[in-house]
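R.M. (postdoc): so does anyone remember the format we settled on? I'll just put the structure tokens first.
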């Protein structure tokens, strides 16, 4: 948390921020590089994060969560991502793309059955929209669900599923009526341990390597009707509404990465000497630091603004799409800017795996891509501003 932040934090917010920071520094920092290198899923730390309430921060206690607000969520996620973006991704998907979607659109039975174990960290949740031929243009998906009595039969291939190799439950979006386009998409909560759910190829990723990502293939998967999320044809709106929340999570993650890259650059600029001076005394370095700091503070305001906008929407019902997309766009580009500048300030050492800066650089990039690329965020913001398409 920066000294220049405009938000006076409540005791409750300070508590979760301190708890997340302590946990990140004591439990995640020592293993982050090792899990990045191996690409293994950090089961033990994720389980502990569940026990601490970090996997369902806004979920009511009755459903296994910590029952806190959106500002608490972004503060905690920022602290976790500052130390390791992979843990940040797993936390974000569990909280926003999985738990939020079911809490908002699910039945009482679905909340009890699926949210409670995921919010408490006993089980892992995932969200699956993308397909090999349907990324930014999400409504063009090909996976199908066909009603068969009190079940739907799912077939198709989904891709880029965060936590796909380890998830217990996945909210998946498939076509029930292809003639209707976006209005023919329906959401289902699927149990990954049932026949017909096949985990596909694990992606060999550039960054966030400890967060497992894979394809999921449905082969005549039988999904009970009671596991449909919302009504038939409501899936696309559910997917977009949930992504608004997901994008606030990714913005917080990006802010954490930017801060980590900046802190490393400041330390190095103070220590490293060149041409008889600390390198931070050269304008070429110090102006980079000033630009990083300024962008981080601006990103922070956008992220916290988006959290407050989402909080407000609980009372007004208003959408907070612009607040979420501006925060995601600016924070992710700030993460990339800061990781790039920090690596440049470090020079050769920044390029070495012995220092975390190259990991920040690799991790930052995904924040400009997943949950809607920077180009999609610009499209969303501009369409809402102009009313033009
Ligand atoms: N909230 C509520 N409703 C929304 C909405 C939102 N944020 N955005 C759109 N809608 C509604 C629209 O109002 C419209 O409803 P009506 O027909 O009733 O008017 C309907 O949804 C269709 O909207 P559009 O016509 O705008 O849809 P489009 O086909 O033009 O697409 C898009 C819009 C913004 C490009 C969208 O497809 C999009 O966001 N694409 C990016 C997808 C994305 O982020 N994918 C990442 C997946 S998750 C991931 O990365 C992996 C992971 O595991 C983390």
């Amino acid at each position: 948390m920066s000294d220049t932040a405009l938000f006076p934090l409540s005791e409750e917010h300070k508590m979760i921020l301190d708890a997340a920071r302590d946990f990140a520094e004591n439990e995640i920092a020592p293993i982050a590089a090792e899990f990045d290198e191996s690409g293994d899923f950090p089961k033990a730390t994720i389980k502990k994060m569940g026990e601490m309430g970090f996997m369902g921060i806004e979920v009511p206690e009755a459903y296994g969560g910590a029952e806190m607000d959106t500002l608490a969520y972004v503060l905690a996620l920022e602290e976790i991502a500052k130390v390791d973006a992979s843990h940040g991704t797993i936390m974000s998907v569990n909280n926003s793309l999985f738990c939020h979607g079911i809490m908002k659109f699910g039945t009482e039975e679905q909340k009890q059955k699926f949210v409670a174990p995921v919010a408490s960290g006993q089980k892992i949740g995932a969200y699956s929209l993308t397909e090999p031929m349907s990324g930014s243009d999400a409504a063009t998906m090909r996976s199908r669900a066909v009603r068969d009595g009190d079940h739907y039969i799912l077939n198709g291939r989904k891709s880029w599923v965060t936590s796909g190799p380890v998830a217990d439950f996945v909210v998946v979006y498939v076509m029930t009526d292809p003639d209707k386009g976006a209005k023919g998409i329906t959401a289902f909560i699927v149990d990954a341990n049932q026949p017909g759910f096949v985990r596909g190829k694990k992606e060999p990723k550039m960054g966030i390597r400890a967060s497992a990502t894979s394809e999921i293939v449905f082969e005549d998967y039988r999904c009970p009707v009671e596991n449909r999320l919302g009504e038939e044809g409501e899936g696309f709106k559910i997917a977009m509404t949930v992504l608004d929340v997901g994008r606030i999570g990714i913005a917080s993650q990006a802010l954490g990465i930017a801060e980590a890259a900046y802190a490393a650059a400041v330390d190095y600029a103070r220590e490293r000497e060149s041409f008889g001076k600390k390198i931070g005394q050269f304008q070429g370095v110090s102006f980079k630091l000033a630009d990083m700091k300024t962008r981080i503070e601006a990103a922070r305001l956008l992220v916290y603004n988006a959290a407050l906008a989402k909080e407000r929407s609980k009372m007004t019902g208003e959408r907070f799409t612009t607040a979420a997309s501006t925060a995601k766009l600016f924070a992710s580009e700030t993460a990339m800017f800061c990781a790039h500048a920090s690596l440049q300030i470090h020079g050769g050492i920044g390029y070495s795996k012995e220092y975390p800066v190259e990991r920040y650089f690799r991790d930052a990039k995904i924040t400009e891509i997943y949950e809607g690329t920077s180009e999609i965020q610009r499209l969303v913001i501009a369409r809402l501003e102009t009313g033009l398409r």
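R.M.: ...and that's the designed sequence above, right after the tokens. Also worth knowing: The pocket of acetoacetyl-coenzyme A is lined by residues 93, 127, 129-130, 136, 138-139, 160-162, 182, 236-237, 240-241, 243-244, 319, 321, 370-372, 376, 380 (CB under 6 Å). The mean pLDDT is 97.
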